[in-house]
Specification:
Blueprint: H1 2-5, H2 14-26, H3 30-42, H4 47-67, H5 73-97, E1 103-109, H6 117-128, E2 131-135, H7 142-152, E3 156-160, H8 168-179, E4 187-191, H9 197-203, E5 207-209, H10 212-229
Parallel strand pairs: 1-2, 1-3, 3-4, 4-5
Length: 230
């Protein structure tokens, strides 16, 4: 720890700075991440390169270790908090420069369900992967989802449920998307403890995501498929 305190950012080359950023993100050091982002910007590194080579690369490592049981939810939330600290500096600059983003996602828990820890974690991990994420919270009706899709021109719709009694509402949303001719406009990913791949297939979602890392992989996969086809 003392050695880390002795690191002088100005003495690091860009690659070493990115590696330090990845390490500090992994450890959830929000203040250090902000200092490192400012240092990189001061060198003329583009916001997009800082995002991808520093923050997204760091969150990729967090995601793998979360999947492998090396990190747990509290540690991932700390890493996500550090990611958000860096993004608070980069986001307006990325908008200014028109830097490409992975896509736009909305996420929210379905009507009748007020559980949000899982979907909050997915939202943070999606943002860490380079998505623009709009978390619309809990207890969302069909109208809430449709409005958010239109407002944010979403590529991905993420729905979560923790109660078996609220799971069927996901089908209500998807059926409404089909009825209104909007189903093909959006990738629908669903998750939550009582769900399964069979359930997702039954309601005609694009995929069931077992955890936040799975949700990141599914988002990347389906966005790549969509862009490959278009």
């Amino acid at each position: 720890m003392d050695e880390e305190k002795d690191i002088v950012l100005a003495e690091l080359d860009n690659q070493e700075l990115f590696e330090l950023m990845q390490d500090d993100l992994y450890d959830g050091y929000a203040d250090e991440i902000m200092e490192e982002v400012h240092e990189a910007l001061g060198r003329g590194v583009t916001p997009y390169d800082i995002l991808n080579q520093g923050l997204v690369a760091g969150m990729d490592i967090v995601g793998v270790d979360f999947r492998d049981g090396i990190l747990f939810v509290p540690e991932v939330l700390m890493a996500a908090k550090a990611m958000k600290a860096g993004m608070s500096i980069l986001r307006p600059l990325l908008v200014e420069t028109g830097a490409p983003k992975l896509g736009t996602a909305i996420i929210g828990t379905v009507k009748g369900d007020i559980h949000d820890i899982g979907q909050n974690l997915v939202g943070m991990m999606w943002e860490g992967a380079g998505l623009e994420v709009h978390n619309i919270g809990t207890n969302n009706s069909v109208e809430d989802y449709l409005q958010a899709m239109e407002t944010y021109n979403a590529d991905i719709l993420g729905m979560s449920a923790l109660l078996t009694t609220t799971m069927p509402y996901m089908k209500v949303v998807i059926d409404t998307l089909k009825e209104t001719g909007k189903r093909n406009d959006v990738i629908v990913l669903v998750g939550g403890a009582p769900l399964s791949s069979a359930f997702a297939e039954d309601i005609e979602a694009d995929a069931y995501c077992e955890d936040a890392t799975d949700a990141v992989e599914a988002a990347k996969k389906f966005l790549a498929l969509r862009r490959g086809i278009s």
